[in-house]
What does this fold into?
Amino acid sequence: MIRFLRDTVHKREGTSRLSLLYILQQLLNALQVTVIYALLSAAFVLFYGVTNRINLAFGALAMWAAYLTIMMVSLLEGVTFWPLIIVITAGVAIAIFNTALLGFSIHHLVVKKLINARMQTMLIATIAIAIILEEAMRLINDSRELWLRPVFADPVPLVTGGAFPVQITPLQIAVLLLGFGIVLLLILMMKRHPFGLRWRAVADDLQMAALCGISLSAVIGLSFVLATIMAALAGSMIALLYGSASFAMGTIIGLKSMFIAVIGGLRSLQGALAASVALAFFETFWSAYFEIAYRDVAAFCVLTLFLIMKPEGLRRR
It folds into this structure.
């Protein structure tokens, strides 16, 4: 009897430890999703803050960067003898640069001309841009998804000795450090850098900012390019972390990031970061404990219910 009780206690302790290790692994997984959402929602915040307009093309721009990242990394790996880290760095840099140029062109050809138009006009125009980008990439790749072989994916054990080891890859470590570093640097820049001060002035009162000598066109243009770079970073990280890119991926991640920006207050990078953490953790733990096929359904239901109960989001203007 005593032996039976001892075995039962040990079994329960082992099960409890296994559950804790599983939860810890999911926490690490949620952090990398947080980085992606934080970068992409920051793009919506940067643009909306100075225009009072929502741009629905950022998801498509992230998709564009994801495709370019896989294309360039695969190309450079095949035609050069560079170390893998240099190949990845160069591929990501080229993808982000080209996506930024694309964003710059979109701003001058479309967005700049619609700044003073009705909100619905900008919304419809950016939806059209998103469709154009998605269809262009679909036609370029014959409706194929692109795949990238795993890079820097050898697991580094954090907790061992159990039935469920907690581990992380070098790529995940790099993405977490770079992603959170960029988000925190962006928040700090918007508080203290001259551009950030101008952005906040325009976001608070556009007409007063103009009377104070701030160039509205310059601030709006730089904001759009910076937002495009944030979206491109998110897309490149998706390509490296998950090893694939689909022409339709921009719609879902773009809509989720827009929801996050709205919940965060639309003018608050800190609010967007907080909402990114909440959604990323919800999705990760849903995937861990429930049917993953219903994850997006559950996520959009929760986002919608939150906005119904709290339309102003996490922060009041």
Notes: Confidence is low (pLDDT under 50) at residues 1-14. The chain is about 75% helix and 5% strand.
